[in-house]
Amino acid sequence: MSLKAVVCGCGAYLPEQVLTNHDLAKKVDTSDEWIRERTGIRERHVAADGEKTSDLAAHAARQALDAAGYAPDDIDLIIVATTTPDLTFPSTAAIVQAKLGVREGAAFDIQAVCTGFIYALSTAEKFLTSGQHKRALVIGAETFSRILDWTDRATCVLFGDGAGAFVLEAQEEADAGKRGVINSYLRCDGRLVDLLYVDGGVSSTQSTGHVRMQGNKVFREAVMRISQAMEWVAADAGIDVRAIDWFVPHQANERIIKGVVKKLDLATDQVISTIAGQGNTSAASIPLAYHQGVSDGRIKKDDLVLLEGMGGGLTWGAALLRA
């Protein structure tokens, strides 16, 4: 029996509080024009006091379950990609499992920063196609505002909070048809840790720390490595990268997205972009953008969709699926 992991529902959640560029200009030496020209971001959402990563994740998960037509008891695997967990332990996935009322199966977190959702999607696909699990919730969720230095205009203007979720189901190939996760590509180069990191941690400083980034160096690495990942994941599946219907990138920076589109000779109207209104939501950005594409009718059943991400580590990767 040959199994495929099929996306049968997606969901999203953004906190109510919106922080605009004009709001940020009152806190730090920046301006709306400066931020928009360099990043494409106009505003971002910020979690309310007391609102945790697991809360955002649970909201997105419930919406994904509703879209898929399943109840919590139908899920036997939960993977949460996050850099901003509720607690050091247990995993945010375990907390989400309890909040949803899921009583069976496994739950764990994956930490690959902005590439986290690609890592989580690839991991879930392996569990499902092995026959070990039947249905998975794959969630990217972040309260990145909690680890920002609000005096550092190089980083605090970039990030926002949010969550997105997929319901993945193991289906026999005959039933799935063309649909399902086709291929994935995951990479990390730990020699580049100092390009994007948090200067705190349980073992090192016993503190949370703040995001630190060498923006120009990250930009140069991003376009090259993301493009390579996308080309590889498509070519390995026997598909020309230009044959995709939709490109759903990690929403890091509009200039990075445009650089990748140009390098791979894609059309700008193939891109699902949410960066203007959401900023960089790290592991949540890809499922949030995918959900936007489904909600507005652009992404349709059997469409070929290419996802990519890049984050601290440096980590990067891509995944190819049919919706």
Radius of gyration, whole Å: 18 Å
| First-residue to last-residue Cα separation | 22 Å
Largest sheet: 5 strands, mixed
CATH class of the largest domain: Alpha Beta
Beta-strand portion reads 25-35%
Alpha-beta content class? alpha/beta
Strand element count: 13
CATH topology of the largest domain: Peroxisomal Thiolase, Chain A, domain 1
Question: How many structural units, i.e. domains?
Answer: 2
Tell me the number of helical segments per DSSP (H or I, 4 or more residues long). Answer: 11
Q: What's the mean pLDDT score?
A: 97
Shape: globular
CATH architecture designation of the largest domain: 3-Layer(aba) Sandwich
- The CATH homologous superfamily of the largest domain corresponds to Thiolase/Chalcone synthase
Strand order of the largest sheet: 1-7-6-4-5
Give structural notes.
The chain has 323 residues and is α/β, with parallel strands linked by helices. The protein folds into 2 domains: 3-176, 3-Layer(aba) Sandwich (Peroxisomal Thiolase, Chain A, domain 1), CATH 3.40.47.10; 180-322, 3-Layer(aba) Sandwich (Peroxisomal Thiolase, Chain A, domain 1), CATH 3.40.47.10. The chain contains 11 helices and 13 strands. It has helices at residues 21-25, 32-39, 53-68, 92-100, 116-129, 153-156, 173-176, 215-236, 254-263, 275-278, 285-295; strands at residues 3-13, 17-20, 43-46, 77-81, 106-110, 135-143, 161-172, 180-188, 196-198, 211-213, 246-249, 304-311, 315-322. Strands 1-7-6-4-5 form a 5-stranded mixed β-sheet, with helices on both faces. A 4-stranded mixed β-sheet has the order 8-13-12-11, with helices on both faces. Helix 3 (53-68) crosses helix 4 (92-100). The longest helix is centred in the C-terminal third of the chain and has 22 residues, at 215-236.
